[in-house]
Amino acid sequence: MNIRILGAHMFESKDTRLSSILIDDVLAVDAGGLTSALSFDEQGKVEHILLTHGHYDHIRDIPAIALKNQHRTINIHATQSTLDVLTTHLINGTLYPQFTEWPSPEKPALKLNTMEPYSNTTVGPYEVLAIPVSHAVPAVGFQITDGEGKSIFFSGDTGPGLASCWEHIAPQILIIETAFSNKSANMAPEPGHLCPSLLGQELANFQRIKGYLPRIIITHMNPEVEDEIREEARQLARALGTEISLAYEDMKIN
């Protein structure tokens, strides 16, 4: 399984992109930085897109990739609540075409596939398990397992309270949001986000429940406090005796 971090931040600039990763060139998870990170040839290889939730910074590039690849059908996989946001507010026939029927109902640019939480779904060559996480709107994380049994868990946006999530997954790599530094520890939970100290509590629960810690990669960071997050994550890794690294744009993980 080859993973490329397309966007690792919660704010966009010429140096930072919004949330998105790409697996083996064919499976994208979230679409905040999808088209801005990929060449047209690379976009042409994407067959499936998983969406964790309906916030704009995670679904934004769906219309862009659909427009450029209208000659074929890309599969979108998400819970019904996220698909409802996508079709009501973005690909609604006003802001952008209804790509589920365009350019023709027989060969649409997009096919929407509803995912049920806690139920394994086959997505191309992968098994995907959607697990609800704590956020301001309904959201899930995805455990993605390839044919060799290697798996990652991508949290999307999430706040504290992940113990019930940990019970259902066993990844080798955990890609998890940590939007804020510890100075925002009191503020982060309300909109459904983490900081390193809150992440540490969730990882302690993971280790208690599962008996191990996976490799941890922090994403969806506020660039303005990234240096603080990096130092706090370094201290957390030392305290837990595990590997924690910060994602960055075009980072590659094997």
Describe this structure in words.
With 254 residues, this protein is of the alpha/beta class. The chain has a single domain (3-253), classed as 4-Layer Sandwich (Metallo-beta-lactamase, Chain A). The chain has eight helices and 14 strands. The protein has helices at 34-37, 40-43, 56-59, 62-68, 80-89, 163-166, 196-210, 226-240, and strands at 3-7, 20-23, 27-29, 48-50, 74-78, 110-114, 120-123, 126-133, 139-145, 151-154, 173-177, 215-219, 244-246, 252-253. 47% of the residues are buried. The model has no long low-confidence stretch (mean pLDDT 97).
Considering the chains and any ligands shown, give keywords for the structure:
14 strands; globular; 7-stranded mixed beta sheet; Metallo-beta-lactamase, Chain A; alpha/beta; 254 residues
Write a brief caption for the model.
The protein is an alpha/beta fold and 254 residues long. Helices cover 25% and strands 25% of the residues. It has one domain: Metallo-beta-lactamase, Chain A (4-Layer Sandwich), CATH 3.60.15.10.
Write the layout of secondary structure elements.
Blueprint: E1 3-7, E2 20-23, E3 27-29, H1 34-37, H2 40-43, E4 48-50, H3 56-59, H4 62-68, E5 74-78, H5 80-89, E6 110-114, E7 120-123, E8 126-133, E9 139-145, E10 151-154, H6 163-166, E11 173-177, H7 196-210, E12 215-219, H8 226-240, E13 244-246, E14 252-253
The neighbouring-strand order within the major sheet is 6-5-4-3-2-1-14
Q: Strand tally, please?
A: 14
CATH architecture annotation name: 4-Layer Sandwich
Mean of all residue-level pLDDT scores: 97
Report Rg.
17 Å
- The helical percent reads 10-25%
Discrete helix count:
8
User: How do the helices and strands follow one another from N- to C-terminus?
Assistant: EEEHHEHHEHEEEEEHEHEHEE
| Poorly predicted parts | none
CATH class: Alpha Beta
CATH topology: Metallo-beta-lactamase, Chain A
The domain tally reads: 1
Shape: globular
The major β-sheet equals:
7 strands, mixed
Task: State the secondary-structure class.
Answer: alpha/beta
